[in-house]
Design brief:
Thrombin, subunit H; globular
Amino acid sequence: MPTKRFDQARPFLTLGLVVAVWLLLPVVLKTFARASFFELTAPVTIAASRIRDLQEFWSLRLHSKSELIEAGRDLARLNSSYEMAVQQNAELRTEIARLENVLRLPSFQEYRYEHARVARRDFSGWWQRIVIRKGRNFGIPVGAPVVFTGGVVGRVSEVHLTTSVVDLISNPGVRLAGVIEGDPLGRPISFQGGVNPTFAPPTGIVEFVPLDIIATPQSPKRLVTSGLGGVFPPGLSLGTITKAELGSDGLFKSGEIKLDERLGSVSEVTVLVPLTPGTD
């Protein structure tokens, strides 16, 4: 009988021994083991991502010619509008440079744009992150901001040889400063990712909202990056504040912010890599 009980408890004893050994290992060895495991699994992650791209390619080839012609027309319209936006952007950059020279203002931090495909998504109640198919081989640094067409995606938290881990702004561990779009005083507001269930729309938390800011679902306020801290350029969209209520201190409001729903399905992102080393 004792032998039978020991055999039944053996898996739990083995698991407990492994956990105890892991807890007693030095931090350096834990970090090395984790990085090694990530590098070993990276080829599998990248291969699975490329297979999905191939499946999408062949699925598109099954569309009829009329559908492709219609998609081509829509793409031509988008290209025309983008060309106009590029021209306007060049004119605005020229005007900004002229005003900086006249007023002797420092230029904004310059970046180079590194586009990357999303290889894997890792969502849970504790963290929300994605893995992209570029890493040290493309010079991506830890802390680099990541954006897409809807605004801010997040920032790079880990960099490996061929992949990088990006913490989304819906991650509870991500905090940054934002401002209400159009606020003439530019008062900073604290933004933090919220606790987001796996299949729920992404949300965040805002604190230190000025008392005169009124935000409701019917009249939301758009929050953009403030540029404070030197990580994210100013003016990038974070989301819309849908609720702001008086805090316990009575000096500021706090509330909820609705993030872009495409964060959970984005397939292509852009990493802003600082041109000046050491500014990330």
